[in-house]
Amino acid sequence: MADSTALIAHLRAIAAPRSGRAIDSAGPDDWLERGAPAAQLHEIYGTEAEDGPAATGFAVALALAGQAWAHTTAPILWVRQQGRGDGRLHATGLLDLGLTPDTLVLAEVPDPAALLRVAADAARCPGLGTVIVETHGRVPGLDLTATRRLMLAAESSGVTVLGVRLAAQVEPSAAASRWGVAAMPSRTLPGDVFGTPAPGRPAFLVECLRRRGGPAGTRWPVEWNRETRHFVPLPAREAALSGAGLPLVADRTVARDATASVRRAG
User: Is the pTM of this model over 0.90?
Assistant: First the structure.
């Protein structure tokens, strides 16, 4: 990763116009096309324990949407703890979302303390585009103070930090926004010459649980278009193709009794 003064200045210039951009309360058409507001911390929860892959997929898509809107190829750093959660990342699933190996930097750390240190350092690095911080359950030290530090670091560097909280109860946080994500069946695409339907794009049911300076509680069904790199509102329901979910992990150890739904946790 280059650290020349010219490169850092260039990346800051790219990030600056997007910093502090407000989330559109009218719907997902604006902000989901452009990615979450840059230079801020945002939290993403799976609505249910089994929605971990949907939450991580949504985070990846948000990061890619931000890249496309800012016209940057700044790397995406993914920080996660070894041996926790839903298993190893699944390369094919990530490629299906549009995340290529030359864009992703993966940091697997041994314990929660190391995870928080790496996340804090990464949030201060202006050469990065997005930092995805994946955690599972309750993480010691990840409290209001720690999230405030991440938020301040993001505001200073221009980096977008996405905290993916899997199998976790909602806790107090300094994040600018908090989102609950659930998987939805994909729409079928037009069939081949034999009339066989094809799996559609990844689809999510997204709920704004909290956002700074505005109302929450709105829910939107959206799908991810990896060609244009933005979300679009999901049209009226069509026949869904069974099994059209997107695999993001190569092996899974989902904690089925980890938590009640995020919406009930409030």
Answer: no
